Amino acid sequence: MMADWGAIAGIGATAAVAISGQVFGWLGRRGDREHESALEYEKRAWEKKNPALENLIRDVSLLRRSTEPNNDWTPQGITANRQLARRRVAALQTYDEFLRSRLDTTAVLAYASPSVRKLVQQLDDTLRAQFATATLINLNNLRKRAQEKEEAIDAGNFDEAASLRQAEVVHAETIGTDVTLDVDGVQRLCDQILDAARNDLRGK
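Above: the chain sequence. Below: its structure as tokens.
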């Protein structure tokens, strides 16, 4: 009995089509799963990245304002050297109180754009080196004098408050003279970080 090669060929073709359909179906489902996983990762990344960038913008804006000349801490009418010393101290105080433990947050390092990460690292390195020179003890003593001044004001001891204010100013200017922080350079870095972080938020 001769084999019905036409029938066999038809069966083979049908099987091939079925197998191909299964393969393509599996590949399609795999592609869908990979796409869903990618979307889920992007969603989780955005949920962490978005608030991290917003916090970074807030903190760096605060640092930027602290380095401005002629603010409350550096009024007009004082010498350029005294003003520079106060601006340096204001920047280091802001860094200590708000940024020192937050600039290298995991979310920023993990999800921010390379340009943001590079600038943040540069700012942190610059301030951390100067902070070591100023020493935490000196800044804590300055903070203590400021607190004592506020307590004297609250108690109505205005002569004592004025004396404490003068001691606070002298101590701050001494610290600011001992460090070599380039506050104008810090301002430029802040501006670059703010631009890069805002662009990162917009997906640019």
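The radius of gyration is 31 Å.
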